[in-house]
Design brief:
By secondary structure, the chain is α+β, with helices and mostly antiparallel strands. The chain contains 22 helices and ten strands. The strands form two sheets. Strands 1, 2, 3, 4, 5, 6, 9 and 10 form an eight-stranded mixed β-sheet that branches. The protein has a two-stranded antiparallel sheet with strand order 7-8. Helix 8 packs across helix 9.
Length: 474
């Protein structure tokens, strides 16, 4: 490895290609039979990549045949063959495969209807319970059995994660694919229960292949070089990730933490490669500044909240001097939301009073869409009170008991409070484009997490610090 900065164009190509490179690396045909009796060779069906109707029918028949078998070992060998065939398909073929499985291996409607009638007609408690068990069985589609067979393959868990990533990428607009996604998500939620995951710290001494994945997967603040990554893994930094026992070299979700003295409200300070390392014995604050989900196929399987809580518990044990746990988080919905409010002249009377003298709301909105607006210091300072007031409104106002900003919703549902807003905390082009440079600090206070999470989830009650409340004009 070299600390030289990565060529930007090459890095962009690598990031675009990374999911497919990882899929090829972990979804190989040989890996599918690892651990099966005798490690038999996998023979995929001879089908065209786009899976035309004739080939789709042959594959459907193969699946029906393997599901009818009684011997689990032979079922898994055949399931490995089906999985290998899937890996050989183009996007068009994969879409047709997923549609076919969702439609052709759904719960038979006639069987379900009969089971429903049996429940209704059951006489006596014992008969009712038996009929309800039969109904549950009838409602379980044959596709669920196929997914369970895939799970038992050597790289079956990763195969299922990538299968759902394909499903989401190719679309769930078809009823069959939508049903399959529902079944697959439920199955993955069980497989990735937090109790089954391992929390590991990732250091600079980790294998190069794992470090490369951190670069590929970082979704909040791009890692621009090996030197940048080394800085994020330095002695006064921490990186923790969840791993699944069936995917020991694939992070599921990871969080980056900076150990500091006091709360830091500027991203460049945290990412400064030239800044001296802090002696962790003097650190009193842990700043969570990036959390990234690594597996698109686990969308909707929320593990980030459990990761943060476990990391807080671990840091409290390892670094008893750290008493404050907070984030430095983007507000990705803010820039568009803010300029829309200004363009529509949708301001409260107090916000309108914060408009720069002589400026209209529409003019301020147009200014914020100019990427160079922070370079005029006088103009930027004039806009600061209004911009922060609007950000405070976004992060404390609920619709249908939820705030509109996804990052805020995540932290508030975890039991954090929105503690303060940081002006020009991320002046990068990305930070300006998504959040007008504003970043939020969410404070995690272990003794209040449960009560705040319950109040937010149940009633949409937003916990906010005095500094944020003070930004809301009367």
């Amino acid at each position: 490895m070299t600390p030289d900065r990565l060529d930007a164009a090459a890095r962009s190509r690598r990031l675009l290609e990374a999911p497919w490179r990882r899929f090829r690396r972990t979804g190989t045909r040989s890996a599918l039979t690892a651990g099966l009796p005798g490690a038999p060779a996998v023979h995929e069906l001879d089908v065209a990549p786009d899976l035309p109707d004739r080939d789709a029918e042959r594959l459907r028949a193969r699946i029906a045949e393997l599901l009818a078998r009684r011997d689990t070992a032979s079922q898994r060998v055949e399931a490995a063959s089906v999985a290998a065939t899937y890996l050989s398909l183009s996007d068009t073929g994969r879409r047709r495969f997923l549609t076919m499985v969702g439609r052709e291996f759904a719960a038979p409607r006639d069987t379900v209807d009969a089971a429903v009638r049996a429940v209704t007609d059951a006489s006596g408690a014992a008969a009712r319970r038996a009929a309800e068990r039969d109904l549950r069985d009838a409602l379980t589609p044959a596709s669920a059995r196929l997914l369970h067979l895939f799970t038992g393959l050597g790289s079956g868990v990763k195969f299922l994660v990538d299968l759902r990533a394909d499903l989401l990428r190719l679309g769930t607009d078809d009823p069959g694919r939508a049903d399959l996604d529902h079944e697959l998500k439920a199955h993955l939620t069980t497989l990735f229960d937090v109790g089954l995951l391992e929390l590991r710290r990732i250091t600079w001494d980790a294998p190069a292949s794992l470090l490369e994945k951190l670069i590929d997967y970082e979704a909040v603040h791009a890692i621009e070089s090996w030197a940048d990554l080394e800085n994020r893994l330095d002695s006064d930094r921490r990186c923790f990730a969840f791993f699944h026992p069936s995917m020991p070299n694939e992070p599921i979700v990871f969080v980056e933490v900076a150990l500091t003295r006091g709360i830091v409200g500027e991203l460049p300070v945290l990412l400064d490669e030239e800044a001296p390392d802090l002696d962790v014995a003097h650190a009193d604050t842990a700043i969570f500044y990036s959390i990234s989900s690594c597996q698109p196929g686990l969308a909707g399987v929320n593990l980030g909240n459990a990761l943060i809580k476990q990391v807080v518990e671990r840091l409290a044990t390892e670094l008893p001097g750290v008493r404050t746990y907070a984030t430095l988080s983007p507000v990705p919905a803010f820039a568009d939301w803010c300029t829309t409010r200004l363009g529509d002249d949708d301001l409260t009377p107090g916000e309108r009073a914060l408009l720069p003298p002589g400026a209209t709301a529409a003019e301020v909105g147009a200014t914020l869409r100019d990427p160079d607006w922070p370079n005029d210091r006088t103009r930027a300072l004039a806009l600061r009170p209004l911009v922060l007031a609007l950000a405070a409104r976004l992060l404390t106002t609920t619709r249908d008991a939820r705030v509109q900003d996804p990052v805020a919703n995540f932290h508030l549902a975890n039991g954090a409070s929105v503690d303060r807003l940081n002006w020009m905390a991320d002046p990068s082009p990305t930070g300006l484009a998504r959040s007008a440079g504003v970043m939020a600090t969410y404070r995690y206070e272990p003794e209040h997490l449960s009560a705040r999470a319950e109040a937010y989830i149940a009633d949409g009650a937003v916990a906010a610090g005095d500094a944020v409340r003070a930004l809301l004009p009367d």
